[in-house]
Automatic annotation (TrEMBL), chain A:
The lineage of its organism: Eukaryota, Metazoa, Ecdysozoa, Arthropoda, Hexapoda. It comes from Drosophila grimshawi. This is GH20941. Belongs to the YPP1 family. The keyword Transmembrane does not apply. Residues 5-207, 235-416 form the Tetratricopeptide repeat protein 7 N-terminal domain.
TrEMBL record, chain B:
GO terms for cellular component: cytosol; plasma membrane. Residues 381-392, 437-448, 539-550 have a biased composition (Polar residues). It is found in: Cell membrane; Cytoplasm, Cytosol. This is GH20398. It comes from Drosophila grimshawi (Hawaiian fruit fly).
Length: 868, 559
């Protein structure tokens, strides 16, 4: 093979150059000249013509497609004849016989004659070839020969007779594929070097200006106008050009090698083969191959290699010796390594130590490669290319999802999908995954926008609507919008698979609207709608505890406690250990004058949910009302300890992924907490706004150095709530100073809470400082005009200060907002008595008496929304 | 089956008493595949064999504590079945019956979360980043944006654990414990017998489907409407739903994924569907992400089906080898067409040459390519400029610099335009395309589009100079964000945009308010372009053929 190059004349060098570049037409032309020049080169000429015909045929026709065999046979007969002519003794002399045999084998393979192909390999003595420096063309022929031999062995129809022979054949096949991969990669690396040196010469040498240089010529002329664009275009052109260079046979063999190993049950060897191929220095030609290989290795690792049988790359004895010894040899390029591709070898390169590292690294590389090739053009002629690229990239995304979500790395995924939007117009999968990942990363409003797009892309799927609805209810506090989505989801449930969820969400929406409504007529209407849809939800899915729970809550809200109790029992029968159900059950028991039982329920529930602040909160209230305040005090102290355990780590910045109580506890009903909500009710009134401002500025000025606590808001709000409860408890045991300290602690966290203002007022009431108390309550009411407790307390304070008319006004407002509270009616009765309106007073007192037995220890609305 | 298991129990009891026999037992046990099968059967018929289940649990526990590795690992393969048995009993309110299983699970959990020397086990890995070269890549072959990505995560550790040991299981920690157990199961899954994967799939389906299968669950509504205050025991539904958490199910999906590619494709796919249905019902976003990903990878894409080959791998040839010719892909925009270049942090302020007409600046600012509309634009847009001012109000210094820059860019473009006229392509068609592109891009800042002016474009070269005089008096209200040059490369029909975005945020707001979301704008409105300041050069195909353009685009193009 090599002796031919030694005595190469100028013409031969030209031919060799054309062969390397695959310009077969040109080779045939040159060969004619060669023949006329020196007739003794006949077998060489025959060989070259045969080769050129074979290769140019294969370039135009798919290899190894069964249907093509007969046509290939007829079309290639000429090439076969030429190659056979080059076989004889003269061919031996000219040094082309070996190559001719190899090419004949390739030809046979293209015709589907696997046995003959193998025979030709035997004749060429392929197995005994020694490693030596080869020309580019010879390198390719050899790489392809190994590849073809491997493929032939794999497709050989005759079954080996014995087990031993089969194993022997398998080993041979595997060796062939391995050699093919090494040589193939080496060829591609050499080819790139060849191209680069060639390109730099091309400007001088005009005769070389065929295929490649037409492109680069265009690039160069373009580059004078748009400098930055030319190089990228040139590189993309080169990539495509090199795709053609690699050829189907090599590409198949490169991908086939590890698969064959897996089939033979040698998983570790297969993984090592992948690693060796990926470790080889990249060339433009191998980039798409690299993408495939990286993805496939990630797949193998995810699908077949669980934690314990994983071995890190390049550490095992076999893999290590082949790889690392090359590195040890250094730049000397010892003769043994001639047929191995060059590898990545730099200092401080990242070496995966375990499965996760390797998988994520591979996927990140694959993603970068796949994303680069994605097609942005939307015109129809690129459709198939676009879809192919999209398929590649989504495959990587899917694997990335699988690999990262388990470890809570949603953020990473999020970024990937964000980048993907650029080329994902109308791709419902990417949009949906993006929306979901945003939701999982708790970027609520952003998630909603993406889900809206997702809804458009899948017009028949209720899921995105339901998710959007949940977002609106749970995080964005836009109940009306959420209800719209829920109704949309219900409309989409044509298949009727599980319409109960949509129905339930419609019910929840109505229920929340009813709670927020201030007009009685509006509230009644929503209550009616809520009841209807929740009843329907329960009918549609009798096993759904959540529907039962909400139905029970709905009955409780409209004061039908009997129905509420029976439904909460159904809910508990469906799911015994459901904290909100138990919570509601306890409240319902207190509303049925069975507080002791309620305490029992709560204590039992706390056995199962020891860290549930909601339940502890109820427990403390019950203890405060039933037993002495000392036990309540210890409960609240326990709450503070629990808060620290659960949230401190979380607030320190560490994501508490496996926390049991993650966001399951929000003591404060969010609508009470947020100023935004209360503003939206009374935003029209300018006076109200100024009052709010006054209240807030007063609160803020009370603290000279207020800094926002780090981390999410909700845990801090919880802590405020605990402090306020503690203040309440201290007042019960006559320690107002301790109470004030608690309020001070709460103020440190967030001074603008109306509940803090209210509690401060309560202490002033306790100390009988009526004027101060009045100001505090006024502040609280200004901050949240819907806070009925503050309204009531304000009314009572007015009464104490001898302002019964104002008291009447406040208490009537409070009663309008919450007509089921006996305390308000009682206070109103007292006011009426003072005013001398005894009839009205009697009415009020009797209403209060009627309501008192069915009043829960805490309002039913104090249970936060649940969706699980 | 029961006999087999009883023998097995008895054998081990005997072996334990006589150390000599125990070795033989271990060897025999390792080679006998039937016993595991028998145990699976007992678990699936546990109602009939309650005592036996208890005994098995005890024996598995002593296996788990045994020093021999094969015995120690043996119970792990039953984890999914044990978990199902346990959860089923808990959901049915029958905790007493599941004490044996519960004890076994607690012991295995405590064992698995501890290291051999009694510490807490942590599975951790370093988060790989592309910015550091690895054995699989070097920096020069990957795009900058990808390399920079996640850079801050350098050497960040991702951890599983440490987990505290537990003494009892309650509703609060139950799912966390079972999730950890499944994680351990997944670590070992390739060591277990392949047949146990089948049981895994079955049990998983039962876990997620229980309580969902019966359409009408009203059988238990006997006492509906009766007096609830009596506190009479309520008839329970025969099989209540089993509460499951998202992370628990994610671990299950991983196990199922393994089964899918190791011989149980069909069953596993069905199980995955079951999990997905449950996930959608409960709306566990993270879980839906994962099930969606696996389901999508099973549909049409190159990852391959479980039955395609070993582990669903098959040869995925690049279609480029066969179909795509160089000429087609040349005019195609791919992501690789974008190249990013970092701009200097600050733009040098040049004051000497502030002579641009504001209208021209607006023209340039509005990302329209070429200068055709300039001819008429200045007078007509003076009124409309007022409506646009609100978008961006840069500081005067910035404007000066920008204006100057824009002007120089403008001059260059004029030169380019000369070339533009030369190519032999039919000019009418080309202008159509320009119009479309123009209109698209102009929408970003300008609602009034002087469409008919395009024909006069060649004149603009000279006219643009005439506004020099008014330059100082006119308030500049727009940052020239992008300059766009249109180049026809020897008739190859591809244009190159040089965009020069200096103020990513400003552009963002500008785009956000004015651009209709259109398919074609993806090339320009992509997040990369928006959020990073750089110089991008884009190859853009003429979009004349595309019918998927936004409605507005078409409208303007036809004007």
């Amino acid at each position: 093979m090599s002796n031919r190059t030694r005595n190469a004349t100028k013409g031969e060098a030209l031919i060799e150059n054309c062969r390397s570049k695959g310009k077969w037409q040109r080779v045939i032309e040159l060969t004619d000249e060669l023949k006329t020049g020196s007739p003794q080169n006949e077998s060489l000429a025959n060989f070259l013509v045969g080769e050129a015909r074979l290769e140019s045929y294969l370039e135009e026709h798919a290899v190894a497609a069964e249907s093509n065999f007969s046509r290939a046979k007829s079309s290639l007969s000429e090439a076969r004849r030429y190659l056979n002519l080059a076989l004889g003794e003269s061919g031996q002399k000219a040094g082309v016989a070996l190559d001719a045999y190899l090419l004949l084998a390739k030809l046979c393979y293209a015709c589907g004659e696997y046995e003959q192909s193998l025979e030709n390999f035997v004749k060429a003595e392929l197995n005994t070839l020694a490693e030596q420096v080869l020309t580019l063309r010879s390198l390719k022929i050899l790489a392809e020969s190994y590849a073809i031999k491997g493929l032939c062995l794999e497709q050989q129809s005759s079954k080996p007779t014995s087990k031993f022979k089969k194993a022997e054949k398998d080993t041979e096949m595997i060796t062939c594929f391995e050699r093919a991969t090494d040589l193939g990669l080496l060829y591609l690396q050499e080819y790139e070097i060849f191209c680069m040196s060639n390109n730099s010469n091309s400007s001088n040498n005009s005769t070389h200006g065929s295929t490649l240089n037409v492109n680069s010529g265009v690039q160069q002329s373009a580059s004078s106008f748009a400098i930055s664009s030319s190089s990228s275009m040139a590189s993309s052109g080169a990539i495509l050009e090199s795709h053609r260079r690699m050829g189907v046979i090599l590409e198949t063999a490169l991908q086939r090698a590890p698969i064959v190993l897996i089939k033979a049950g040698k998983l570790h060897l297969a993984v090592d083969r992948y690693r060796i191929m990926l470790n080889a220095v990249d060339t433009p030609a191998t980039q798409s191959l690299r993408l495939t290989l990286a993805r496939q290795l990630a797949e193998v690792l995810l699908r077949g290699v669980s934690g314990t049988i994983y071995a890190p790359p390049f550490t095992s004895k076999t893999g290590g010796s082949t790889l690392r010894s090359g590195g040890a040899g250094g730049g000397g390029s010892s003769s043994k390594r001639l047929w191995k591709p060059r590898k990545y070898e730099t200092r401080q390169q990242f070496m995966p130590r375990n499965q996760q590292e390797e998988v994520i690294l591979l996927l990140l590389i694959a993603e970068a490669l796949a994303v680069r090739d994605t097609v942005l053009s939307q015109s129809p002629e690129f459709r198939s290319v676009r879809q192919h690229a999209m398929g590649n990239v989504t495959a990587v995304y899917d694997l990335l999802t699988l690999a990262t979500i388990r470890w809570g790395l949603v953020q990473l995924l999020n970024e990937s999908f964000e980048k993907a939007l650029k080329f994902s117009f109308g791709e419902q999968h990417v949009w949906r995954q993006y929306g979901l990942s945003l939701m999982a990363a708790e970027k609520h409003s952003h998630a909603l926008c993406v889900l809206q797009e997702s809804m458009k892309l899948t017009p028949s799927d209720p899921l995105p609507c339901l998710l959007a609805s949940r977002l609106c209810y749970e995080s964005l506090e836009t109940v009306k919008q959420g209800l719209d989505y829920a109704q949309q989801a219900l409309k989409r449930e044509v298949k009727g698979l599980r319409p109960s969820r949509s129905q339930l969400f419609v019910g929840i929406g109505h229920q929340q609207l009813a709670i927020q409504a201030t007009l009685k007529s509006e509230r009644d209407a929503y209550n009616k709608l809520a009841l209807e849809s929740l009843e329907r939800a329960v009918q549609q899915d009798g096993n759904d505890h959540l529907a039962e729970y909400y139905l029970s809550l709905q009955y409780a809200l409209i004061n039908q406690l009997g129905d509420a109790l029976s439904h909460i029992r159904f809910a508990l029968a469906l799911r015994m250990e459901h904290a909100p159900c138990l919570h509601l059950f306890a409240l319902l028991l207190t509303a049925s004058r069975r507080p002791r039982e309620a305490l029992g329920v709560i204590e039992d529930a706390l056995h199962e949910f020891p860290d549930n602040l909601q339940l502890l909160h109820v427990k403390a209230h019950l203890q405060l009302n039933l037993e002495d305040a000392e036990t309540a005090l210890s409960t609240v102290q326990h709450m503070l300890a629990v808060w620290r355990d659960v949230y401190e780590a979380q607030l320190a910045g560490e994501e508490e992924k496996h926390s049991d109580t993650k966001s399951g506890v929000h003591l404060v009903h969010s609508s009470q907490m947020s100023d935004k909500d209360s503003n939206s009710v009374y935003a029209a009134s300018l006076a109200a706004v100024s009052r709010v401002e006054q209240a807030l500025s007063e609160a803020a000025s009370s603290l000279s150095s207020f800094t926002q606590r780090p981390g999410p808001r909700r845990p801090w709000m919880l802590q405020i709530e605990i402090w306020l409860l503690l203040a309440d408890v201290y007042m019960q045991i006559d320690q107002p100073n301790e109470s004030l300290n608690c309020i001070h602690e709460a103020t440190q966290i967030y001074p603008l809470s109306h509940q803090i203002m209210f509690m401060r007022g309560q202490i002033h009431v306790y100390l009988e400082q009526w004027r101060e108390a009045k100001q505090c309550f006024l502040n609280a009411v200004a901050a949240n005009p819907n806070h009925t407790e503050a309204l009531r307390a304000l009314g009572e304070t007015h009464l104490m200060l001898g302002e019964p008319r104002l008291a009447e006004k406040m208490l009537k407002d409070a009663a309008k907002l919450d007509p089921n509270c006996p305390k308000i009616w009682f206070a109103l009765g007292q006011v009426m008595e003072t005013l001398g309106d005894f009839n009205a007073s009697a009415d009020c007192f009797s209403t209060s008496l009627q309501l008192e037995p069915s009043c829960p220890v805490l309002p039913f609305t104090s249970i936060p929304l649940v969706f699980e | 089956m029961a006999e087999l298991v009883k023998d097995w129990l008895a054998d081990y009891q005997r072996a334990r008493r006589q150390p000599a026999e125990s070795e033989a037992f271990v060897v025999e046990h390792e080679t006998d595949p039937e016993i595991a099968e028998a145990i699976f059967t007992i678990f699936s018929e546990r109602q009939r064999n309650e005592d036996l289940v208890h005994d098995i649990c005890q024996q598995l526990l002593s296996f788990y504590r045994a020093p021999e590795v094969t015995l120690h690992k043996f119970p792990l393969q039953f984890l999914p079945v044990l978990i199902y048995t346990y959860l089923h009993a808990v959901a049915a309110g029958d905790k007493k019956a599941s004490r044996g299983v519960e004890t076994l699970l607690i012991c295995i959990y405590n064992g698995e979360v501890s290291t051999d020397d009694g510490g807490q086990k942590v599975v951790a890995f370093r988060m790989p980043i592309l910015a550091q070269v690895s054995v699989y890549h070097e920096l020069k072959n990957l795009p900058m944006t990808d390399l920079r990505r996640w850079e801050e995560n350098c050497n960040r550790e991702v951890k599983w654990g440490p987990h505290l040991r537990i003494e009892s299981i309650n509703a609060q920690n139950r799912m966390r414990i079972l999730t950890a157990l499944l994680f351990c199961y997944n670590q070992q899954v390739s060591l277990t017998q392949k047949s146990s994967l089948l049981h895994l799939c079955r049990v998983t389906s039962q876990l997620v489907n229980q309580g969902f299968t019966t359409k009408s669950g009203h059988g238990h509504r006997m006492s509906y409407g009766s007096d609830p205050a009596t506190g009479a025991t309520f008839p329970k539904p025969s099989s209540p739903r089993i509460p499951l958490s998202a992370s628990f199910l994610i671990e299950l999906v991983h196990a199922i994924y393994y089964a899918m590619f190791n011989g149980y494709g069909t069953v596993a796919i069905q199980t995955l569907e079951d999990i997905h249905n449950r996930a959608s019902y409960e709306m566990y976003t993270e879980l839906i992400l994962v099930t969606n990903a696996v389901r999508n990878s099973l549909h049409a894409n190159p990852s391959g089906q479980p039955n395609d080959g070993p582990m669903g791998l098959s040869v995925a040839l690049t279609p480029a080898t066969n179909t795509v010719t160089t000429s087609v892909s040349k005019s195609m925009i791919t992501n690789a067409s974008f190249r990013t270049k970092k701009l200097p942090d600050d733009i040098p302020i040049q004051v000497q040459d502030l002579t641009m007409a504001p209208a021209t600046q607006q023209q340039l600012a509005s990302v329209t390519e070429e200068t055709e509309p300039v001819a008429k634009e200045s007078p007509s847009t003076k009124e409309s400029s007022g409506t646009r001012t609100s978008i961006i109000r840069p500081s005067m210094e910035g404007i000066k610099a920008q204006a100057n820059k824009a002007f120089t860019g403008f001059k260059k473009k004029d030169k380019d335009k000369e070339k533009d006229k030369e190519p032999p392509k039919p000019p009418q068609r080309k202008f159509d395309k320009h119009t479309q592109r123009n209109s698209l891009l102009q929408l970003q800042t300008q609602a009034t589009d002087p469409g008919p002016d395009y024909e006069k474009s060649p004149l603009s070269v000279s006219k643009s100079k005439t506004y020099d005089s008014v330059a100082d008096t006119q308030p500049t209200d727009m940052l020239p964000m992008q300059t766009l040059s249109l180049i026809n490369e020897n008739g190859s029909n591809s244009f190159s945009i040089e965009s020069d975005m200096n103020d990513g945020i400003a552009v963002l707001s500008g785009l956000g308010s004015n651009v209709p979301v259109s398919s074609n704008t993806t090339s320009i409105t992509s997040s990369d372009l928006l959020t990073k300041s750089f110089d991008s050069s884009v190859e853009i195909t003429p979009m004349g053929h595309s019918n998927s353009n936004g409605g507005k685009l078409a409208e303007h193009g036809l004007e």
